[in-house]
Amino acid sequence: MSSAAAGTAGITLLGATGSIGMSTVDVIRRHPDRFHVTALVARSQVARMAELCVEFQPRYAVMEGAAQAGQLRELLQQRGCRCEVLSGVTAMEQVAAATETQLVVAAIVGAAGLLPTLAAARAGKRILLANKEALVMSGQLFMDTVRANAAVVLPVDSEHNAIFQCMPADATEDIQRAGVERILLTASGGPFHSLELSKLETVTPEQACKHPNWVMGRKISVDSASMMNKGLEVIEACWLFNARVDQIQVVIHRQSVIHSMVQYRDGSVLAQLGNPDMRIPIANALAWPERIDSGVAALDIFQVAHLDFAAPDLGRYPCLGLAMQAARAGGTAPAVLNAANEIAVGAFLDKKIRFTQIATVVEDTMGACPPGSAQSLEAILAADEQARAHAMRQIHKRG
Ligand code: NAD
Ligand code: MG
């Protein structure tokens, strides 16, 4: 296989057919001298997966379901592609831990990414983390697993990648000693930032998915509109940078040019800027500590001209407040928050509940599922399941 040329790093791409997956593929395609694809994982987009397999000739391709795996196998046979097609979560865990793989890009959306990402941590891989929900659910357990197995986590989420770039390499173990005082986590405010509050009740999934600055998957687009995404990112930042919730300040910055900032004891504030294109953080994480071409045009600061900042209004964004509450409560509270949100966002996308009911369902579920210890995977998965069941009952009642 020419793509697996000696000396290039093998990549397992979890969530290959999604928005992050396709941006990753675009960067990898530019650097055949550095990377080759070992395994691709996706849920249901068989045709797109077939194209990727033909182009990158991975050793393994995994679909969530056996039926999709069967369809993919057939397509690949017709096209003379000899990659091994598997299905199911165990196969995803196996390819995340495969010896041929050095880099695992965790870009499955939602809790479904937890088990394969944890398997990569257990196998001591370099993990490029986009799948924030996995970390939100299992923060302590995940970071403990990373440390115990000498795995490395490199943030792909644009804000966390920016923070990472603004900190000294070893700062994350002890940000106090590194002189970090605050993390300024930027947020665009989403498509409903200036909408009259009374109109929020009637917004449609199509409107929610029309983000002003980023093109993303549907779930994270809705999370951006409700700012639950920023709430999940606060929790993500606490774990990645060993920070307390009160050290993180969310800042509305409509232009999405600054991707986050770090404020130091001496009054310095470091920021990372760039065009809003996920290929920048992806390229940064893929090549770290080196720098490679991401395919993104240089930032034209004269065209940007202005940068605006404002504090978020928790009345407009109740999901952000709920996430901060879960972050402070700790234990299984973030897993409950995340599970309820996934169910509520799914129901909103299916037009079963209103946009404003996402927060109601999450709040109600958090009230009904008090946090317990999140020390074991079993406890986390049980909390996730209980919260999903409760959120679904709420939605049926409302629907
Ligand atoms: P997406 O919906 O576009 O893609 C999701 C991918 O996950 C697809 O390849 C899908 O096949 C796969 N997938 C979904 N369920 C699966 C399952 N059960 N088993 C196996 N594969 C499954 O989502 P996205 O926008 O690419 O986001 C992916 C992750 O990255 C999310 O956690 C999101 O929060 C995070 N993220 C995305 C962006 C962005 O710009 N899109 C930015 C920062 C972080
Ligand atoms: Mg982000």
Which properties best describe this structure?
399 residues; alpha/beta; Rossmann fold; Rna Polymerase Sigma Factor, Chain: A; 3 domains; 7-stranded parallel beta sheet; 4-stranded mixed beta sheet; 16 helices; 45% helix; globular; binds nicotinamide-adenine-dinucleotide; binds magnesium ion
Question: Quick gist of this model?
Answer:
The protein has helices spanning 19-29, 46-56, 66-78, 89-96, 114-122, 132-148, 158-165, 205-208, 218-226, 228-241, 279-287, 301-304, 318-329, 333-349, 357-368, 377-398, and strands at 9-14, 35-42, 60-63, 84-87, 103-106, 126-129, 152-155, 180-187, 248-252, 258-264, 269-273. The protein is of the alpha/beta class. Strands 4-3-2-1-5-6-7 form a 7-stranded parallel sheet, sandwiched between helices.
CATH class of the largest domain: Alpha Beta
Instruction: Write down the overall geometry.
Output: globular
In CATH, the architecture of the largest domain is: 3-Layer(aba) Sandwich
- Mind telling me the CATH superfamily name of the largest domain? NAD(P)-binding Rossmann-like Domain
| Rg from alpha-carbon coordinates | 20 Å
Bound molecules: nicotinamide-adenine-dinucleotide, magnesium ion
Extract low-pLDDT stretches. Answer: none
Helix content: 40-55%
**CATH fold annotation of the largest domain:** Rossmann fold
**Element order, helices and strands?**
EHEHEHEHEHEHEHEHHHEEEHHHHHH
Largest sheet: 7 strands, parallel
Describe this protein's structure.
This protein has 399 residues and is α/β, with parallel strands linked by helices. Helices cover 45% and strands 15% of the residues. The protein is built from 16 helices and eleven strands. It has helices at residues 19-29, 46-56, 66-78, 89-96, 114-122, 132-148, 158-165, 205-208, 218-226, 228-241, 279-287, 301-304, 318-329, 333-349, 357-368, 377-398; strands at residues 9-14, 35-42, 60-63, 84-87, 103-106, 126-129, 152-155, 180-187, 248-252, 258-264, 269-273. Strands 4-3-2-1-5-6-7 form a seven-stranded parallel beta sheet, sandwiched between helices. Strands 9-8-10-11 form a four-stranded mixed beta sheet, with helices on one face. Helix 4 runs parallel beside helix 5, helix 10 (228-241) packs parallel to helix 13 (318-329) and helix 13 (318-329) packs parallel to helix 15. The longest helix is centred in the last third of the chain and has 22 residues, at 377-398. The structure holds nicotinamide-adenine-dinucleotide and magnesium ion. The site of nicotinamide-adenine-dinucleotide (NAD) has 27 residues, from helix 1, strand 2, helix 6 and helix 9.
